[in-house]
Design a protein that fits this description.
Order of helices and strands: HHHHHHHHHEEH
Number of strands: 2
Largest sheet: 2 strands, antiparallel
Structural class: mainly alpha
Length: 275
């Protein structure tokens, strides 16, 4: 269940990449928000619940695919094969787009096409190496659980900033890093929002101490009865820590976050003309 929830959590900080293509004239922000949450639940959480149910029904706690095929009637094998072969194409396309976009942001000199080709080749190599060199399923489960524990406090801090800023961003100042320059209202200290970074690190640390992996059990699991609540604890701790560290700051219409271009704390300079 925790691994399944990693999908919606992972998409929280990526939704702006897709919702920016929706016309604000035809669709209100509230409608886009409701549509986004509905898509996350129906597209990611419900399939995970279905997988959990069928895994129990097929008694496939450790090896899902084999026992499920053995327990399925003949007529069910055709849609099962279609789901296995085509079910991940859409998500793979979205992830490939996001990975290329992220690498392009980290390495501004790399073009979008070159960054996408690079991550596609690396990801394909990792899939084959993971299949033949070690237990890829166990490694993948560990990866998504760790990513969720680390990423949830970042998402919570970003959402707190969105509420505080009322969705108003200085679009020009957000491009400082892409232009390989410095300064701007989001620069803070060498490009880092120290309070947000410290809050994220604290939340991520708690999440790592409460995670349950095939090869690692966090010491805080005893407090949750052995249930992996790492993403809940990390998000709660990161959010509370950030609110506490910024309690004395005046609320201003700029976003919070970790690094340059994603932080808050200064007044935007004529931001309304740049959005």
């Amino acid at each position: 269940m925790a691994a399944g929830l990693s999908g919606p959590v992972a998409f929280i900080t990526l939704l702006g990449d897709y919702t920016r293509y929706i016309s604000p004239v035809r669709h209100s922000s509230r409608r886009v928000l409701h549509g986004t949450w509905l898509g996350l639940v129906l597209g990611l959480l419900v399939p995970q619940l279905f997988g959990t149910f069928t895994a129990y029904g097929a008694r496939a706690a450790t090896d899902y695919a084999g026992p499920l095929v053995s327990a399925s009637p003949v007529w069910y094998l055709v849609p099962l094969l279609l789901s296995a072969s085509a079910g991940s194409v859409g998500n793979a396309g979205l992830m490939l787009y996001s990975m290329g976009l992220d690498l392009d942001a980290i390495l501004p000199r790399a073009s979008r096409a070159r960054a996408t080709y690079t991550v596609a080749i690396v990801a394909t190599a990792c899939v084959f190496v993971g299949h033949y060199a070690w237990n890829a399923q166990s490694a993948m489960t560990s990866f998504v659980l760790l990513l969720t524990a680390i990423g949830t406090p970042w998402a919570v801090i970003t959402l707190i900033g969105f509420v505080r800023s009322r969705g108003v961003y200085d679009a020009d100042a957000l491009q400082v890093f892409n232009r390989r320059s410095r300064g701007g209202i989001y620069w803070y200290r060498a490009g880092w929002n120290i309070r947000a970074t410290a809050s994220w690190a604290l939340g991520a640390g708690v999440g790592l101490l409460a995670v349950s992996l095939p090869s690692y059990q966090g010491p805080l699991l005893s407090l949750t009865g052995g249930v992996d609540c790492s993403f809940l604890l990390s998000g709660a701790v990161g959010g509370v820590a950030y609110l506490a560290l910024t309690a004395q700051q005046t609320s201003r219409p700029v976003p919070d976050g970790i690094g340059a271009g994603t932080g808050a704390g200064q007044e935007p300079a004529r931001a309304e003309g740049r959005l």
